[in-house]
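Reagents: none. Just compute today. Sphingomyelin phosphodiesterase.
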Amino acid sequence: MINKITKPKLLIGYCLLLLSLIRCLPEKKSSYMDLFTSLLFLPNQTNNDFVNSVSINNDPENPNPVNPAPANNNQANAVPVNNDPENPNPVNPAPVNNNQTNEKPANTGSMKKDPSNNIPTKVNSKNIELKVLSHNVFMLPTNLPRWGNWGHDERAKRISKSDYVKNQDVIVFEEAFDTNARKILLDNLREEYPYQTDVVGRTKKNWDANLGNFRSYSLINGGVVIVSKWPIEERVQYIFNDPGCGADWFTNRGFVYVKINKEGKRFHVIGTHNQSQDHNCSNLGVFNRANQFNDIRDFIYSKNIPKDETVLIAGDLNVIKGSNEYFDMISRLNVNEPKYVGIPYTWDTKTNEIAAYYYENEEPVYLDYILVSKSHAQPPVWQNLAYDPISKQNWTVSGYTSDEFSDHYPVYGFVYADSLTPTKSGHKRKYDQISFQSAANGKFIQADPNKKNGWLKADTTIKTDFTKFNLLQEGNLDPSCIKSGLVRIESSHSLNYFWNWWLGGGSGNYGYYPKFNDASNQLEIINLSEKCLEDGSKIVFKDYDTYSKDHYYLTVWDKGNWNEHIYLWKDSVSQREIFYLRFNSTPVKNWNMDLIYR
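Predicted 3D structure written out:
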């Protein structure tokens, strides 16, 4: 995956990195020093330090029992300095090239002339159409400090066998950096998509042409790869002339061009992943992205593609939909805005656990597109459908469990919807957004609306976002039927915050609160009917006290300042230990009426 580097080039790279350490802000130096250390040992280094394993319930980092700690402090410190919602993949942060990033990008108008004067041809609706899928799969190099392995191999297996990647003509993957995970993904897809490119930026071999600024000293490939159901007649690797800034500087970022022959009809697809919105870049990389979009536009002009053939640009363009930069991108690339359907965001910290892990305070954004060139054949309509599938089974790595395929959601590009087109959100599981109503006082358990790690209380008669929780039962092969057993209970409002109990001194001992990435590993849900949990099921909770070495039931406290707080306390069951499980009756988002069918 990482190109071999000659000693002089390696020395230059390290010198540049040391220079960045001197120039970077004091609060950045720690992260850059970690990176420098990792580079020194890059060939042999592996980082399994993804997340700490489940800790005991004691939390010595927070001696205040009234304000339980939000998370393991080591985890909190692991959040990288680069708080970039558009690039949750700090691929070896690099020194910013101030001379380059401060330059104004080239004008939207190209110095190169469109070689064809023909008027773009509108494709007849009876003509052959192309279905394209784009997905940023978040498979970072596993030797990156503090990021580690987010279950790359397991996710690669699940992605390749999932329904959402089936029945397409072409798929563009971004952030397929990791060699082993990429091999698993491509090998498993080969039966349906036998025509495949290499990943951009890895080697100059296996391409019909190598264009742009291939940097042999780059430590990381560009992460973009294309697979096709139909023959690829031409494949070109283009490394951006603007190498980017911040973390992207260390990657051979660029785009892949393929010419597809679908039953005699030619289609041209460009798969790209553009400069991330990095805080180490001038203006968050706007100038760099503009230069990269110019590369794409000028390449299309230079190809002299017939006007009656469709040209598509697909990928994670790292531009927020609706922003000023978005409209500049549309103009600069000379593309039409598609008809947008589906979920509102492709990177969503409110619904996606991986996206929320490092960036819980960032707002969701739409970053991924499949666009049609205005200079070439125009379909009667072009739709972009953002979809949010999840794995049917959970994956677990280093104590972290999830059902997400990636931190981004995929986007489909197509002319007309058909019977296989997703029409509703795929993200809600049966046991998501569950509420627990106390049999004693009729009130719902809720998380603190003002503090993510505040105490849990059964103190509201109204269902809100804070009374909703996600149930997760590890090892359960049938997620549609949770029975009695060990569970992790996650706050639906604050992803990655799980029920745990406090044991740090004071009257708050044994009180429950949501703790970041640290669920009580002995919490049990007991269904008194001994069947699958359903709406209205009567349940109790039981947990293990690591101090007294015994099990107790969770109860709603009934006196004093701690009235209605949830405690691990009782050794028998009464009304105060019984809860009724309530499903969320809100229907999932459905966009069937927004789709255009033939």
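The two ends are 43 Å apart (CA to CA).
Action item: order primers for follow-up constructs.
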